[in-house]
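=== Structure Prediction Worksheet ===
Name of assembly: unnamed complex
Input type: mixed (protein and possibly other molecules)
Chain count: four
Listed entries:
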Amino acid sequence: MNNSIVVEARDLTVRFDGVVALDAVNLKLQKNELRCLIGPNGAGKSTFFKCLAGMQIPTSGEMIVKGEPTTGFDPYRIARLGIGIKTQVPSVMNGLSVKENIWLAARRTNPTKRANKIVSDILDRLNLGDLASLEVSTLAHGQRQIVELGIVLAGDPWLVLLDEPAAGLTGDEVERMISVIKEINDYATLIVVEHDMHFIRRIAKMVTVFHRGRVLIEEDVDTVLSDPVVRDVYLGKRQ
Amino acid sequence: MIVSGAKEIITTVIVGLVLAYGLPLGIDTFTLTVLSIYALLGLSLGFIWGFGGILCFGQAAFFGLGAYAYAISAINFGTPWIPFFLAIIIPAIIAAIFGGMLFFGRLNDVYLAVLTLVFTLILYKFMNVTAGEEYVIGKARLGGYNGIPGFETLSLPWDPSEYIYGDSLFYFSFTLLLVVYLGLRWLLRSPFGRVMIGVRENELRAELMGYDVRLVKTAVFAIGGGVAGLSGSLYANWAEIVTPNLFSLGQSAEVIIWVIVGGAGTLFGPILGAAIMGYLKFLLGQQSLIDNTLVLGAVLVLAVLLLPRGIFPVIVDAFKRRGWKRRAPANRPPRGRRRRRERRDEQ
Amino acid sequence: MKIDRRKFVAGTTAAGAMAFMPNVVQAAATIKVGSILDTSGIFDLYGKPMDKAVTLAIEEINAAGGIAGRRLEKVAYDTQSNMALYTQFAQKLTRQDKVDVVHGGILSASREAIRPTLRKSKTLYFYNVQYEGGVCDRNIFATGITPAQQAEVLVPYAIEKWGKKIYILAADYNYGQITAKWLEHYAGQNGGSVVQSDFFPLDVADFGSTIAKIQEAAPDMIMSALVGGAHLSFYRQWAAAGMNKKIPMASTTLGAGNEQVVLTKEEGDGILLAYSFSKELDRPENKAFLAKWQERFGSTDDIHELAVATYQGMHLWAAGAIKAGSVERDKVVEALESGVSIVGPTGKITVDPKTHHVITDVHIVEVGDQKMNVVKSFDQRQPVDTQTVCDLSANPNDTTQYEIKI
Amino acid sequence: MDYAAVVIVEILYGISVLVIISAGLAVVFGMMRVINLAHGEFITLGGYAAITAHSLGLPIFISILIVAPVVVAVFGLIVERLIVRFLYGRLINTMLATWGLSLLMIGAMTMIFGNTTTGIPTPISGFTLGRYQMSGYNIFVIIMAIVTVLIVYGVLKTTRAGLIARGAMQNPEMANAFGYNTSRIYMMTFTAGAALSGLAGGVMAPLVGLNPASGANYIAKAFITVISGGTSVVSGMLSSATLFGSVSQIVTFLSTSVIGEIALLVAAVVLLRLLPTGITGRFLKDRV
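=== Predicted Assembly ===
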């Protein structure tokens, strides 16, 4: 097996009550790659994402991370492999402060002192200093996205999974998100599920397009975006 | 949320001393003892519900198990102190096993509620049919509906003829209440406590951080079971008899009422709720004008409708606007997240 | 007489203090009778009439001049059918109210909850309830009928009338288990046999499968020691299946809470019972008692076995205290142990000095038209069950509740 | 074999009792995601309504089949307006409030009717099955269970009201947009559930001795049946009632009724452990 392949899906299939959400998907991911998954609603990209994150058990097929089969792992075991996950709707601890949220993520792998240090680093890095002691439930949607990103970073992951990171962000925040993603990509592998074409254009290198539970095409970003079939599927299906 | 530890210990001890001297002036210690015991039981549910996000409809199960564990082992050992500790450990272990079964099965919400309820019902029904001679544990007959009377009660470890009884049982129970309260406060401040709160806030996120939510919840449930067991063992010492009614639906309902009335999401609230409702019940018992159950029910309905956060947080808010973490009224969460958010909305 | 100086000082101080508190003088002069009963909650069906019986007996005793010239005063608490409140109120009665005697307790569990408290505080205790027997404690007098007293007369009568094969249904707790054993014991003595004994927790209300099982066993009769509201469903379901026409039934429990009135004629008629009391008892004392109750409370509908036992328990205690000339515990106990008897609505009752239980008349009654009609009376039955295990004149320090091995 | 027939009738009867006492709760839970913990007291109230009506001289079948459901429906309507409607969407809060309501009702019924166990005689006489004498009323209960299921199914599946109600429960915003008043639909559904509880009380009244605390005997079983069934009103309730009814009756025949009840509870624990969202949470999802 090629050592540089860190994530591999083999014939991954998910069925819900007879509806096929994923149909024998095969996908490989190189180390330090930044892969974008796109596709219209219901194309299967989010289902694929959930299988990878341990939030969905595939009906059949295999998921392999760094040579180890992870099919059917619970999310916490996936996370313990060093994988950071940001879900579609920000999954944060609403009743806790920004700082406490990030601290909890940092504390799992670090002793208290070191965790405190990591928290302050991340608050700086994401410009969250002003919000540090506010309760997350009081923040705007975009700010919560950033907090969630901070949580992901605090776990010091080598693989980061982001589901629609740009949704609901203001212009400034999008810029910050883009720069953080690029920064993360310096040392970690990334999978980004996204709708927003402009955003994809800004960050993507390789893009995988899902359609009706299958991989339609897997090419570099320019090829994909100029592909007439993709345009058709995407725009046609969207409305 | 976090006051400095030393300051809190000092405050608690001072308030405790004042109450320990003040309360017996107005209320007899026999009643105060049972109020302290109820407070401990309320505290156990307040802890797992308010901080662990586990709504147990059968907290009485562990209360009863503690009382029975004490009575049965006191008859077998003939001394009170080994049973006293067994009455904490056994319910905690049973809670760990039962909780583990539930949480590793990923049961939540109403399903958790129904199974904890069923658990109490099974114990209740079982204990009620143990009148026959064949139901013996060591030297102790389980006694069925009539329960187990006549076991050794707590005495001084260095002088077994000196029983902890009457006033001293009150001071003993009250001290334990303070100790457990401080212990749980300390636990909540520890890293484990924060993880636990994190799990309550958002299980999925805690999982995605790499915490094994099932294990955390099982541990929380076991601690709650141990505290309820302690309270049950004190109860056995107070009442000098244990009966299957300790496992009854009514007993479980009362605990939930205490926590709701006092305020879930705080530790002091359940204590206050238990004391107020316990005393109210006692007072109601001395009149026959209006049915006691009716009043308890009305209090619960009104509390849910008017004071869903409980009395204690409202008092705290009234006294100081700052310092207590107020929850912003939760907006209706987006559809997809409703299930997960539900628990929080309800507190 | 030598006057101890300290006692004298204490006495004068107390007298001085009392001069300023006339109420205390009065209170000290009355005799306090503690009553602890469930007058609300699920057992109030039993407790309310018992409470009335205490009131009536106190009024009668006071009208007759009280005890040793002192009037009686009732101090009552409602335990709300909650066992926890029993210990709580027993403490209150002994510590705060400092009563001279306690009458009360309904369930055996409630009696066992307060018995140690009353013993420790040396407060005399009367338990006036039909119960499983076996309590052996010099501080307590149990004036209710016990299973052997009922079974001893009921079983032979029923066997002679109906046949030898008996199917027993009993409540699944001490009372039911022990009663079933006595029924079996007397069945054996009288040439009968028990084909099956089934026990039901007090909340079981569905007897469909049991009725089918009984038919499978085809006994000559049913003996029931079922207890409480839920078990009442059995009689109803039994009649609904038409079984009451096929297999006759006897019971040691039906009617203790006036259940014969809740059942219809069709459901209840023909069931045989054994009690010390029935409203239909044709005795002058009973008629007088019913008349007084009617006058005091307006209706005699609620009177039952336990209320009468309480009424007689009060009078028995008063007779002992009058004989002793004091309400001091030890003196009253000695007086009662010397063999005091009274004649009450049920006839003559006498204290058995060895067991502190009572020797009483027992009557076999048949339910008919929602009444308990007396068919045969047996005079002065001994508490034979408790007598097999308990001898307080030999072991005055015994405090056990024995489970009688037969 | 006669005995086998008797056993089968008893099993059917066991299932029917579960269906009857669960139906009201199932409708309210399945349609509205509301657990009414005062359900047991609703049943008890139905029982008292039937007994009172009968003692006032009304014919017994009118008392149990009409008076009981109507009285409890009216009561349910009042409860919905005063309490439940403020708590929609907050499952646990509704459970707590209705638990309070149940205590309140026990207290109130004690004050009104007293603690004495009462009842009405069984209106149908027994019949003979081979060597065995059976209760005719048990057969009536089985028939009533079938009728109840058919009514609930029929209303939900075939009538316009049922369709609107199902739609509104699935997607309140949508129903609102179509001009249906969801608040009214909730109100009607809760009232219908209460009527079913009242019917259960009426039907059960001749079988059991009734006292204000009787509700406790029903609520636990009904709660377990409904939750284990899952969210589909009819198929969920039917499947779990069948499972639990058979388990408890068979075990009862083999041992005692308590072991039967414990078997029912253990079956519920095992079932929910294996299928954490109930039977229809896993299978039969799209049924009514």
